[in-house]
Design brief:
By secondary structure, the protein is an alpha/beta fold. It is built from five helices and seven strands, in the order H-E-H-E-E-H-E-E-H-E-E-H. It has one domain (41-170): CBS-domain, CATH 3.10.580.10. Helices cover 30% and strands 18% of the residues. Strands 1-2-3-4 form a four-stranded mixed β-sheet. Strands 5-6-7 form a three-stranded mixed β-sheet. The protein is globular.
């Protein structure tokens, strides 16, 4: 993608120019080719009806958070500070990739030691295609959803899969 400001040839999909830092996002708008793509580029994340997020405190122990996740049959929780602002996300993947086999005495450690800090969030008005791109590019299975910077819920890869399967059903697909 050629920067209109300095002429540098950036990688396709770059959000800003690598040399002059000019915003390039307005140059990379996909044009839908069919009804599936149109829905993906026009439907907001809100259509997924994000599940109200279960939050835990930054001071909670790994033991208590894992027990909450098991009891509620959920794959992730948002970790909040004393004011309720999101500071991290803790998921079953964090347990598998950051704890098991790496630490022996972790159950009484604070969840902040193993959570993913400063998680990327999606606004409820963000488009489904943007959510797919963010989750795929970041290798995320869960993403907090906000409205005006305030946490309203979480979406998962499963939510996106159900959405796409619904598109296929309503349009005569599989």
């Amino acid at each position: 993608m050629i920067c209109p400001n300095c002429g540098y040839d950036n990688l396709p999909g770059s959000e800003e120019c690598a040399t002059c830092l000019q915003d390039l996002t307005h140059l990379d708008r996909p044009v839908p080719q069919d009804r599936y793509e149109r829905r993906l580029t026009e439907d907001p994340v809100a259509i997924l009806e994000p599940v109200p997020s279960l939050t835990v405190k930054a001071s909670d122990t790994v033991r208590s958070v894992i027990q909450i996740m098991v009891d509620r049959n959920i794959g992730a929780v948002v970790v909040v500070d004393d004011k309720g602002a999101p500071v991290g996300i803790f998921s079953e993947r964090d347990v598998l990739m950051r704890i098991v086999g790496h630490h022996e005495n972790y159950l009484d450690s604070p969840v902040t030691k193993f959570m993913t800090r400063n998680p990327e969030c999606l606004d409820v008005d963000a488009k489904i295609a943007f959510a797919l791109h963010k989750m795929d590019g970041g290798d995320y299975r869960h993403m907090p959803v906000t409205r005006g910077g305030r946490l309203v819920g979480v979406i998962s890869v499963r939510d996106l899969l159900r959405y796409v399967a619904g598109l296929c059903r309503e349009n005569g697909g599989a």
